Amino acid sequence: MSNLFRSAVTVLVVLCAMVSWGATLPGFTTDTQFDEQTSSSVFAPGILVHFNAPGPAKLDATKPTRLIIYTLPNGNSTTWTIGKKTGPGDDWHFNIQHIGAQTRRLRELLPNENIITVYAEASKKSWPTWRKETPSAPEHLLAFLDFARLQFRDYKPRVTLSGHSGGGSFLFGFLNANNSIPEWVDRIAFLDADYGYSAEEGHTTKVLSWLKGDPSRHLFVAAYDDRRITVNGKLVVSGDGGTYRKTMKLISDLGRETDLTSATTNNLIHNTGMNGQVEIFIHENPENKILHTVLVERNGFVAALLSGSKAGTEADKFYADPSYSRWIGN
């Protein structure tokens, strides 16, 4: 064997090892508190993106990889959405979603997977506004997802599309921009975010076709009865708006094509179907409270990612007390 050939083989082995284990991602910064690596950038026009991946010692290309796109709610920044322990003078937004801590809890529960969360923040902190004001918005949404996937192409990721509040506008924009949902999407989660649902726009047909295409695909929806909630004495949602009405319509539309079962426990209506591929929660809200972000805080993100699996514990169930508290950063 020539020295040149030996050298080439050695380089190839080293490169493969770098990709498969102990990977420091180019342009990422390591956070030692939770052994993570992160990167932030602006994807034109007006999309702020923040990647959070396992640290170099844990990121392993031989493991299955989940790339979780989390589209931010209206009025929230990425740092607020990640969350942290709060003290005097801290903005209250830091303590309402804790997607950072919920991501870490998922890594604890799923040690044999690479869990990567991608925070997608729209300019003006509103995805509905961004879609209205951005020329060729559908093309930019598709390009952004291609960009996010490209960062981790060596890991062959499955993609979860998830969002809270106005973040659902991104998800429906994506559905509208595709004739069918791509095969690389394996999970869709609306966390009180399905305001834009419309059977007339083909959402039901596309989602059902996608679910039927692979039993490992999952749809998770969480909503609450928001029909009577008020702020300063005025109704928050219009007579035909809100996620309660949209979610009930979704259940009705899905029910025409597949069997759904329903059970109610502790004011939570739990609808399931397609052997666990579909899971829809609606909180009855008998006290007429604003539960919009409470649905996220109470394990919403964790439950959405575990839906249909046997991973997790009773503590990780949707709407249980937060199971991720020890993972909240400083």
Could you give a quick summary of the protein structure above?
The protein has 330 residues and is of the alpha/beta class. The protein is built from ten helices and 13 strands.
Major sheet details = 11 strands, mixed
Mass-distribution shape? globular
CATH topology: the name is Rossmann fold
Instruction: For the record, give the distance between the C-alpha atoms at the N and C termini, rounded to a whole number.
Output: 55 Å
Widest sheet, order of strands: 1-2-3-5-4-6-7-8-13-12-11
CATH superfamily: Alpha/Beta hydrolase fold, catalytic domain
Domains, number? 1
Helix proportion range: 25-40%
**Order of H and E elements:** HEEEEHHEHHEHEHEEEHEEEHH
Structure description:
The protein has one domain: Alpha/Beta hydrolase fold, catalytic domain (Rossmann fold), CATH 3.40.50. Helices cover 30% and strands 24% of the residues. The protein has ten helices and 13 strands. An eleven-stranded mixed sheet has the order 1-2-3-5-4-6-7-8-13-12-11, sandwiched between helices. A two-stranded antiparallel sheet has the order 9-10. The longest helix is centred in the first third of the chain and has 18 residues, at 3-20. The radius of gyration is 20 Å and the shape is globular. The termini are far apart.
